[in-house]
């Protein structure tokens, strides 16, 4: 096994490195990564991004959003959590076995006195409370297995980033998460920082492993992969299946409710409801929005060109807030 040493806290770069290791890197057949991110929402490959996250909160907190190549649910990560990745070419029977990838993590945690265990197919728990989820991406000749480790992650931000902004729901969500989820730091006999935890884990996991530091050429290629896939709107949002979303608010001009039907990241139908007053060309505005990407900049451009004064007392930016 070869440890890929890479200190980027950009999840998109790390996902790009996984892909690079799967497809192009030729210094070995088995690779391992241990990495962390700035605050990030990682969406499962087959999920509706906009349904899974609290977009206003994510924007307010500058939380990154990226879709994984693996399935599963959306997770929140930050600089006090860790991710691990195993990339194995020609995996043989190991390609369908979660245990062979999670057991080394459990053994490393046991070495520092953390009573972790596996639960179900792909979760790791302490005292029945989850601290790690795992996922796999399989091809005929390669397996990618990656997992998350909550070390001292901000659980309140986790809940708010994944929940609607209703304070009662958020409060109940935080309480519920604290009952079902735990941070590894809570179970250490000797406190340690996030970086100290990384060093302890690597000292156990890398016994006998070689370390490979990416060259400038490697990093340039990883950056290209990031830009071509993981940094694109089409990958992160445009693959969403058809869905509808309703948002509403009250403004000086009255209550506005907007129902948007979106498929593959594009508005296929949209309807405005409320107790507002509008000009007859509201219908034309709705037609103009059909076919528009469900993306803030595109919608703002249409609304600023077409919506000024259409709804009395409600500005184009206020309309936008009820769409996205």
Describe this entry's structure for a reader.
There is one protein chain. This protein is an alpha+beta fold and 324 residues long. It has 2 domains: 2-236, Bira Bifunctional Protein, Domain 2 (BirA Bifunctional Protein, domain 2); 243-321, 2-Layer Sandwich (Enolase-like, domain 1), CATH 3.30.390. The chain has 12 helices and 14 strands. The strands form 3 sheets. An 8-stranded mixed β-sheet has the order 7-8-9-10-6-2-1-11, sandwiched between helices. Strands 4-3-5 form a 3-stranded mixed β-sheet, covered by helices on one side. Helix 4 (99-111) crosses helix 7 (194-205). The longest helix has 15 residues, at 216-230. The protein starts with a strand and ends with a helix.
Strand count, sense and closure of the main sheet? 8 strands, mixed
Number of strands: 14
Alpha-beta classification: alpha+beta
CATH architecture of the largest domain: 2-Layer Sandwich
Percent in strands = 25-35%
Tell me, what's the shape?
elongated
Radius of gyration: 23 Å
Q: Order of SSEs, N→C?
A: EHEEHHEEEHEEEEHHHEHHEEEHHH
- Cα distance spanning the termini: 45 Å
Portion in helices? 25-40%
As laid out across the biggest beta sheet, the strand order is: 7-8-9-10-6-2-1-11
The level-1 CATH class of the largest domain: Alpha Beta
The named CATH superfamily of the largest domain:
Bira Bifunctional Protein, Domain 2
Task: Return residue spans where pLDDT drops below 50 for at least 5 consecutive residues.
Answer: none
Summed up, the helix count is 12
Q: Might you state the CATH topology name of the largest domain?
A: BirA Bifunctional Protein, domain 2
Q: Averaged pLDDT, please?
A: 90
């Amino acid at each position: 096994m070869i440890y890929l040493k890479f200190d980027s806290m950009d999840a998109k770069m790390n996902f790009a490195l996984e892909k690079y290791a799967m497809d192009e890197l030729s210094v070995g057949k088995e690779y391992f990564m241990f990495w962390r991110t700035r605050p990030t929402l990682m969406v499962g490959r087959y999920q509706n991004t906009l349904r899974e996250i609290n977009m206003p909160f994510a924007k307010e907190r500058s939380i990154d959003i990226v879709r994984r190549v693996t399935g599963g649910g959306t997770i929140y990560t930050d600089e006090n959590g860790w991710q691990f990745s195993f990339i194995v070419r020609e995996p043989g029977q190991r390609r369908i076995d979660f245990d062979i990838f999670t057991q080394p993590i459990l053994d490393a945690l046991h070495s520092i006195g953390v009573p972790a265990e596996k639960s179900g197919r792909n979760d790791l728990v302490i005292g029945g409370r989850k601290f790690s989820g795992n996922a796999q991406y399989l091809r005929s000749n390669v397996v990618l297995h990656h997992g998350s480790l909550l070390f001292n992650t901000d659980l309140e931000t986790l809940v708010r980033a994944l929940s609607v902004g209703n304070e009662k729901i958020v409060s109940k969500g935080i309480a519920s998460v604290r009952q079902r989820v735990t941070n590894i730091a809570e179970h250490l006999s000797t406190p340690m920082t996030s970086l100290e935890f990384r060093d302890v884990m690597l000292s156990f996991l890398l016994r006998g492993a070689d370390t490979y530091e990416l060259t400038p050429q490697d990093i340039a290629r990883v950056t290209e992969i990031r830009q071509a896939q993981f940094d694109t709107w089409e990958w992160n949002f445009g693959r969403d299946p058809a869905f509808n979303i309703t948002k509403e608010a009250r403004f000086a001009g009255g209550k506005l409710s907007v129902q948007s039907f979106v498929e593959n990241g594009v508005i296929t139908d949209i309807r405005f409801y409320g107790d507002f007053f509008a000009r007859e060309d509201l219908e034309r505005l709705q037609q103009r929005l059909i076919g528009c990407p469900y993306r803030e900049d595109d919608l703002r451009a249409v609304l600023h060109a077409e919506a000024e004064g259409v709804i009395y007392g409600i500005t184009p930016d206020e309309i936008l807030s009820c769409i996205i």
